[in-house]
Every structure is written in C-alpha cells, then in structure tokens.
Automatic annotation (TrEMBL):
InterPro entries: ACCD_DCysDesulf, TrpB-like_PALP, TrpB-like_PALP_sf. This is 1-aminocyclopropane-1-carboxylate deaminase. SUPFAM superfamilies: Tryptophan synthase beta subunit-like PLP-dependent enzymes. Residues 14-294 form the Tryptophan synthase beta chain-like PALP domain. Keywords: Pyridoxal phosphate.
Amino acid sequence: MGLRGCGHADVRLPSPLEEVNDEFLREHGVRLLLKRDDLISAEVPGNKWRKLHLNLQAAHEQGRSTLLTFGGAYSNHIRAVAAAGRACGFSTIGVIRGEGHRPLNWSLAYATEQGMRLEYLDRTTYRAKHMSEVIDGLRERFGDFYLLPEGGSNALAVRGCATIADEIDADFDALCCACGTGGTLAGLAARLSAGREAIGFSVLKGGGFLKEEVRRFQEDAGAVTGNWSIETGYHFGGFAKYPPELAAFIREFHARHGVLLERSYVAKMLAGVYDLAARGRFRRGGTVVALITGPPEGADDQNGGGRAAT
Ligand SMILES: *Cc1c(COP(=O)(O)O)cnc(C)c1O
C-alpha cells in the first residue's frame, strides 16, 4: 500500500467477487455477489484494513510512532489495530472499556501478543473519552500518539472504504454492508456511480442514530451523497446477541455455500438481504453485492459460545 515499513501485512487487493448460486434468491429474481473483504488479510481483515491504511500512512507522515485507540473487551477494531501496528512498525496502546480481568480473554490476549499495551478506563470515564481532559490525561501518561477513534471511523477511514466500489467489475444495483459506526457505509456510498444504492444494516438495537452519524462521516470526508439508506430491523436483539434463528441462518448458509459467516455483523446483514429479497425490495432481475466485512472471529470456530466483538 505504499506504506514504508508495512511489508509484513499480508494484504491482497482487490478482494475476490464471488457469485452465490442460491435457489431462494433466484425465485425472488435476485442475483447475489459476495465481495470477500474477509479475505484481504489474515491479520488485518475486512473493513478494518480499509479503514486503517490511510490512517497508518498519515501517522507515518506525521512522524508518530505510537497508535492509541479505544474499544470493548472483544473489539475487532482493537485486534486489527494491534496487528496493523505490529506489521507496520508502530507501538500500540489499546484503551479498553471497563475493568481488566485475568486471565485475558482470547481477544485481548491476541492484542497483547501483537505487542499492544492495554489500559482500562472505568465506564464513566470511557464514555467521556472524546473530551480533551481524558485525551490530555492519556497524552501525559503515554506521550505523543496518533489517535484512532473507537471503531476506527474518521475521515481517512471513510476515504479508505471508498475504493471498495471501484473494485467491483460487475453490474449491480445495490451494495449492502453491516453498520457498527457507519463509517464503512459512508465511504462506499460516496463512490457509487449514479443509479446504484448502498444499504447499511444496523447491528445495534435502536440504530436510528446511525443516519446522522453516516451523514457526519460523509461531511467530514467531503463526500455527501443521497444514495444510501439504513435498515434498522435486522439487529437480532442487539449488539453481540446471537439468537437461534441467526445461528440457523449461519449453519444453513455454510452448508449450502461453504462460507462461514461472521456472526456479529456479516450474518445479520446477509439475513437482512435475504429477507428484503423475499419482500421484493430489490428490482426483479437485479444484482445485489453483499460486502463480507470480516471473517468469523476466533472463538466462533471453536465453540458455540464465542462472544461477539465491539
Ligand atoms: C468493525 C466491523 C464492522 C463495522 O464497520 P463500521 O464501519 O463501524 O460500520 C462491520 N463488519 C465487521 C466484520 C467488523 O469487524
């Protein structure tokens, strides 16, 4: 990616585009393509690489040697920053919501294996993490750092996601993705050509606030578009919730198509796509691209009780 000292990140772009041969969707007149961003890199997969790489470049250009960011105890973003920092030669500090526990859970253990230093903030202080008192306090303790927001969404992250649409060399009507912070949706919508739409699927209960967020991310990135919308009815009970019907969808999709879906974001989005197809939301004969923003997380593969990320 033209980032000096970043040769260890095994990044493969463009990510593959794969057609899903699905009878149910065919009956509803919809062709489905998967944009396999989960295969971009084993270390910094999916939209996390898309969102980080321009930030890493900026940090490097600003002469920063340390990245600091925020996240929950099972955060995909925290693991991605830890791995990207290691691959690209930055020290990393992860400021984690809540109290520390020993032994570390698998996600934080992975982050420390990548060399990340962990700090914990009580929930009240954590909620105020964007206030200058909190940031100044962190700078006093850790010195100068490049600050990445929780979830990694900022103007450079949004711009990093804009190239996703450019990579898709097929005709399509809609590009679908899961929304946590909405940064990915903001970016990929910014670059869609006329007549195409982006649809985000909130994985949070009460995702109505995302509309304002996505608009703000687009404003910050200087690319406001009116070609996107957000579905708020496919959170399956809320963030990190994993009800049996979602598990069944994942099992069935895996059995039929050989792709194991990540449960906190990707499976909810794709279940939403199937439901919208059944409801006639897409043009008959149209093509939908679903962005696979990440692979199943560590604990998914090992047992049924893996915890979800933030
Ligand atoms: C972080 C993450 C998202 C959320 O992306 P936003 O830009 O915050 O909306 C979606 N899918 C996966 C797999 C993620 O890890």
